[in-house]
Amino acid sequence: MNGESSPRELLATSVVIATRDRPRLLSDTVQSILAGGQLPREIIVVDQSARPNGEIAVLGSVGGCEVRYLHPGARGASRARNAGLYAASQPTVVIIDDDMLLGDDSLERLLAGKRSDEDRVVITGRVLAASPDGPGLAQPPAALITQAEPASFTGRQPRQVVPGPNIALPRGVMIEIGGYDERLGPGTRFPAGEDHDLSLRLLDAGCEVRHVPDAVMLHRAWRTRRDVARLRWRYARGVGGFYAKHASLYDPHVLERALREVKARASRAAASTASSPSMAAAQLVSLAGLLCGAVEWWVRYRLLARGGSAG
Q1: Cα–Cα dist 91/23, whole Å
Q2: I need a surface site. Which of 2, 22, 30, 233 has the fewest CB within 10 A?
Q3: 22: Cβ–Cβ under 8 A, 6 or more apart, which residues?
Q4: What's the rounded Cα separation, in Å, for the pair 35 and 37?
Q5: Where in the chain are the domains?
Q6: CATH assignment, 10-221
Q7: Does 214 score more than 60 pLDDT?
Q8: DSSP labels for 61-84?
Q9: Where residue 5 falls among pLDDT bands split at 50, 70, 90?
């Protein structure tokens, strides 16, 4: 990647990429953005790697797009995304991951999903599988977003409608609701569920979520199948934490969602016990992870917090 080149038409958006210890993948992601037909006004890379990435840090302005590099000491994808949100100069912030590739028109199609005067609209796109980087590699749980039909959501939904990456967020609303919950997501004790949590809070804040299937980005498979099996447990623990965070007898929406997921996974486990023991085992691992995450969150952030405030 080179430094300054001739300016191109710029999109009024900041692209935020949270990254940690994946310099090759990050370089490819940034290059795919800079190779697009239209560039964002800025790319903000929040790098939590042990060592700074000198290649990205010195990029500066490329085609009129300012590449800004932050190297904080803290860990956690949600914390990194919040750092990018607060540093962003544009009213719309696009969140992507460091293992994704953008096509020439990915950003334009995503941002075309709303008008400039719509300040409480969230846009989501599809995330499809790129060719794997090598044999024996697999996609982790919930890495892909494949819904091929346009959709619009307002008010609470029976499922998550705001995914992790390939989303355009109104920066003002994100600041208003406090950004991502930094207790959830990769790099924390509850290494998933931050997208479930954000989806619920954005809808509660009166946002409309629009899914634009033409806005496609590609997710690279670079993890081994053994890594993916471990991620299934971690993903379930994070979602269990999300359920426990919002669980309330006075507002049963999240409890009902949790119950539906538990029933669905238990049913799939029972149905596949004879035909596919590995599938049944995967469902049971997810069920155990949901329970473990929910119990730990309840104890850590609700029971102990209540006891501390009482004292």
Answers
A1: 28
A2: 2
A3: 98, 99
A4: 7
A5: 10-221, 226-310
A6: 3.90.550.10
A7: yes
A8: EETTEEEEEE--S---HHHHHHHH
A9: low
Q: Any residues with CB less than 8 A from the CB of 251 and at least 6 apart, and which? A: none
Distance CA 179, CA 86 (A): 9
Distance of alpha carbon 299 from alpha carbon 182, whole angstroms: 18
Round to whole Å and give the CA distance between 203 and 280: 34
Helices 194-204, 225-246: axis angle to 10 degrees equals: 40
- pLDDT given at position 138: 85
The per-residue pLDDT for 135 is 80
> Cα(109)–Cα(211) distance, rounded to whole angstroms?
11
Residue 117 has φ and ψ, to the nearest 5°, of: -90, 5
Let me know: does 56 contact 45? Beta carbons within 8 Å: yes
| Parallel, antiparallel or unpaired: strands 137-138 and 223-224 | antiparallel
Contacts of 15 (CB under 8 A, 6+ apart): 33, 40, 42, 43, 44, 93, 94, 96, 107
Strands 167-170, 92-97: pairing is: antiparallel
- For residue 132, pLDDT over 90 is answered with no
pLDDT of 211 above 60: yes
Which tokens sit at 3?
């430094």
Task: Place 293 in a pLDDT band, splitting at 50, 70 and 90.
Answer: very high
Which contacts (CB < 8 Å, 24+ apart) does range 253-258 have? 253/156, 254/200, 256/158, 257/158, 257/159, 258/290, 258/294
